[in-house]
Specification:
The protein is mainly alpha-helical. It has one domain (2-131). It has helices at 2-22, 26-33, 35-38, 66-74, 90-97, 104-131. The longest helix has 28 residues, at 104-131. It is globular. The protein starts with a helix and ends with a helix. Mean pLDDT is 80; it is low at 15-21.
């Protein structure tokens, strides 16, 4: 019985540490990691974008599927049609920042997903503005 209680407590602690790191909202992640190049509204007009060889993408115009968007953000798999990218490989950056965390790969993936969800909202927000009279 004591082992079962101990196992349940340990499981709850691990789950809490994973969710705490993954709970960082997509908007917070975007502002921290993406806005300097892509701009606060995702139009590719961030202050650091001017220093790049190729201007950052206007994220409000993206029409990628959620899975494709996650792959682009994660960056660990080269998307041949897009060529090389000046964008950091965020999947590795997130995973390395969680070095001492259990389940860091899963948590990094959850961060990529949160970021992809937020970027999708930037596109949807632009569409709503364009439909207004």
């Amino acid at each position: 019985m004591n082992r079962l209680v101990m196992l349940l407590v340990m499981t709850a602690l691990v789950a809490a540490s994973v969710s705490a790191a993954a709970d960082e909202s997509g908007e917070v992640l975007y502002r921290r990691f993406c806005a300097s190049c892509h701009g606060l509204e995702g139009r590719g007009d961030g202050p650091a974008g001017a220093a790049l060889c190729k201007p950052p993408a206007d994220l409000t115009r993206l029409q990628s599927s959620p899975i494709e968007l996650m792959r682009q953000i994660d960056g660990r798999r080269l998307i041949r049609a897009h060529g090389t990218s000046q964008m950091p490989i965020w999947g590795e950056v997130f995973e390395q920042s969680l070095f001492n965390e259990p389940y860091r790969r899963r948590t990094a993936l959850l961060q990529v997903q949160a970021l992809a969800d937020y970027v999708s909202k930037l596109h949807a927000k632009k569409e709503r503005k364009e439909k207004r009279p």
